[in-house]
Amino acid sequence: MRKMIDLDSFDRRLLDEVRHDNLQPARVLAEKVGLSLSAVLRRLRRLREEKVIVADIAVVNPALTGSALTMHVLIQMQQAGPQTMDSFAREIVRHPEITAAWDVTGDDDFLLKVQVGSMEEYDVFTRRALGEDKGVHSFKTLITIRNIIENELARRPLRDR
């Protein structure tokens, strides 16, 4: 396990800012967190090198890309042994409908975030990805009504974040 990185209050404020909008110019970040431009650039470089920031990504509006339905799927495996779990984890990354996945504790073994355009597409996905996997014992689907955080972020213009 990796050692935790020592983060001061400036690092934490900087991380909070880029977590909500990673396109902010460094000069704007410097003003917001109370550091010089060079200090912000140096800290961002260090945070990336030390893998505190692991990716700069875009949050895509699924309604505009044909994937308007979001499901969270709880998976129970037949056996929760390392080989079964590892095999399933390797397999799920091959399905583009799965946009996030977690290995979880409790009654369920995995939690998947699945994005599709229709219930018919979801049916095809579950038959192909879950129904054909002999390691899957059962699954339960939670249909997302709305994403509160992403909806709130989408309402605010980038310059106001």
TrEMBL record:
Keyword Transcription belongs to the record: yes
Lineage per the UniProt record: Bacteria, Pseudomonadati, Pseudomonadota, Alphaproteobacteria, Sphingomonadales
Protein's GO biological process: response to amino acid
Protein name, UniProt field: AsnC family transcriptional regulator
Example of a GO MF term: sequence-specific DNA binding
Gene3D superfamilies associated with the record: 3.30.70.920, Winged helix-like DNA-binding domain superfamily/Winged helix DNA-binding domain
Family matches, as Pfam families: AsnC_trans_reg, HTH_24
Domain HTH asnC-type: 7-68
Keyword list, A-Z: DNA-binding, Transcription, Transcription regulation
GO cellular component term of the entry, any: cytosol
Cited InterPro entries: AsnC-type_HTH_dom, Dimeric_a/b-barrel, Tscrpt_reg_AsnC-like, Tscrpt_reg_AsnC/Lrp_C, WH-like_DNA-bd_sf, WH_DNA-bd_sf
Keyword Transcription regulation: yes
Domain of life assignment: Bacteria
